[in-house]
Amino acid sequence: MKNRFLYFVFLLFLQISFAQNNMVWQGYFSYNDIKDVSQSSTTLFAASENALFSKNTSTGQLKTTNTIDGLSGQTITSLLHSSTANKTLVGYENGLMIVINEADGSMLNIVDIISKQLPANLKRINHFMEYNGIVYVSCDFGIVQFNLATMLFGDTYFIGNNGSEISVKQTTVFNGFIYAATIDGIRKADSTNKNLVDFNQWSLIASGSWSSVEAFDTQLIAINASGNVQKYDSATNFFNGLFQLPQAAVDMRATDNYLMITTPTTVSVYNKQMGVVRQITSSQIVGTTVSFTCATNIDDTLYIGTNENGMYSTTISVSSAIENTMPSGPSRNNIFAIQATTTSLWAVYGDYNLFYNPYPLDTYGISKFSETGWLSIPYDKVFGAKSISRITVNPSNEKEVYASSFFSGLLKIVDDVPKILYDQSNSGLESLILAPPNPSYIDIRINGAAFDKNGILWVTNSLIKNGLKTLDTSGKWQSYSLDKILLASSNTNFARLSIDKNGTKWIATDRDGLIGFNEKNNVFKKITIGADTGNLPDANVRVAAADNNNQLWIGTTKGLRVLSNVGSFSSENQLTTKPIIILEDGLAQELMYEQFITDIVVDGANNKWIGTVDSGVFLVSSNGQETKYHFTETNSPLPSNTINDIDINSVTGEVFIATTKGMISFKGTATGANEDLNNVFVYPNPVRPEYEGTVKISGLLNKATVKITDIEGNLVYETTSEGGTIEWDTTAFGKHKVASGVYMIFISAQDGIETKVKKVMIVR
């Protein structure tokens, strides 16, 4: 009990911490996968995979809630808004329950179900039903009572045979009795019975597997697993068939005037006489293929959730247009790769597994975020490009973008419009060859891509002999054979490709370590495992990033290595890497030991952002000796510890982190250094009492001296910039918060020639 209490306090503390620090975090979530809906008389509430949104039907105002606000990154399975308590309950796949107080937006994590001594796969929350101030929580093990007034759980009902666990899909109250639809019958109990923890108080009134049960006006309606809709006869205590659905139902719910039954392809609205007043089919949604998940209504408006296309609305009483109504966002939460520019962010979704297998092939298209919002380039506009795994923007012309498909080739996009798909028929790209050969099978696996300083695009083409390709500014293609440097080029997959300041191309491979290539002398070199052949911890390399000191940071599936100088490529026959050794609790440790590293990005201060496959994100200092941050699901708004990609807007310093369950950003100090001090900016200014973050001073030269004094000239802070931004925690050298007043900021370049003076007001 003590441990449970401490865990609860810990989670509550995390929610408070997230709320206080959310000014440095931003969420970029998809609201397309609608899991459940609820409503009040004026507001629609909708749950997507791990985020919520609400829409005021009077004003049309949309409000979003996600991990930045304190939600979990786990998958949501159920939602209930209680108008009487003005609270919204969110249920999760793992049994977590979050209660949102709509009056002030505060959240409370309820972990009682998680803490139950039951198998983890039985803790899923399937449904909420409110009755007389008590919420009946249907789970895969039974039913739990939750009191909305005390915010405490009550009794747990194990209502299976002989008191065993049983998956309860939905409950309702009808004529004073609780009815539970389970995978093994419909069970009934008197709601006034004080001993419902005794399974003998629950009687089995219908056998078989049931998906739904709902009280509607003077009727009790239930649906079995095969889609047969039945009505309860109180006199005989039996359910009688009404009609057969063409598919199994995925949702049924009643409001004051209507009953709505949802299947993947139809939403049917019934009146109190069980007559159909409106039916929507998936074929009525023009231009896309949809699968319905749930539906509800507010007055005469019907709201329909889908599993990939968000929320639709239409009227019930008359046939009217079906409109999409949801917040803008990326197409899905599992963003595989991103590319940030100074003005936009590109995202792609096509992926491959740990072994570079792209199957099943994805058809999710491409997304772009800019100051105008989200733009979606759907699959039907990308010339059939499947499993798009990387996105590369031309640094000399941000209107020109290339999307790498790990099956279909290379897609060129100009002014946000796909122009051409390069494949084996119109370019130097090549398809892999099956064994035995099948000439009709085309599979062109393009992944890593980067522009060099001459505007030439370099791309990797996996599982072929000539695995390195170029596309120059005139449209000419060229190929380079990797056959001599690789053990088996036709079996080698390529990850990311990067180019250092000397023009050397660094190619990450799945079995041959890291390949370096410079076309000036047509030189290839390999860094792989073994003390005499490179000293990598594993030959499966995922990323290589050159930092501002010309060191090459190499991420593998089993840890990190650093090449001390990329210039050694031209002077040394065998390039050798070293681990970074740090002291942890007085013991020498290897930085990122045995970690599966998915990405490494260097920020403007030469710090390294390191993504991992299951341990979140690390921010380490320029030399790796200090871990500045280690962000995970439990100590930050990260929705998942599986990091797919990281990128940085070099002007704003916003660090974008793409995970398997959503993308967030961290607004730190990762900006590049400026050439002068003409654009120095201090924010926020003034600093108001409610602000809990740091003051940021951006637009700095590298290694600029920054001194902050009070109005009387007393020094309270001093530092030297690394990159274009520094932070001040508004304390006097870290000892105590400074008092209210105006503070002077004196900035000077390293040589002392250029200076700037700024002011910031602190209001306590």
Automatic annotation (TrEMBL):
<dbReference type="Pfam" id="PF21544">
    <property type="entry name" value="PorZ_N_b_propeller"/>
</dbReference>
<feature type="domain" description="PorZ N-terminal beta-propeller">
    <location>
        <begin position="44"/>
        <end position="203"/>
    </location>
</feature>
<dbReference type="InterPro" id="IPR026444">
    <property type="entry name" value="Secre_tail"/>
</dbReference>
<keyword id="KW-0732">Signal</keyword>
<feature type="signal peptide">
    <location>
        <begin position="1"/>
        <end position="21"/>
    </location>
</feature>
<protein>
    <submittedName>
        <fullName>ABC transporter substrate-binding protein</fullName>
    </submittedName>
</protein>
<dbReference type="InterPro" id="IPR015943">
    <property type="entry name" value="WD40/YVTN_repeat-like_dom_sf"/>
</dbReference>
<dbReference type="InterPro" id="IPR048954">
    <property type="entry name" value="PorZ_N"/>
</dbReference>
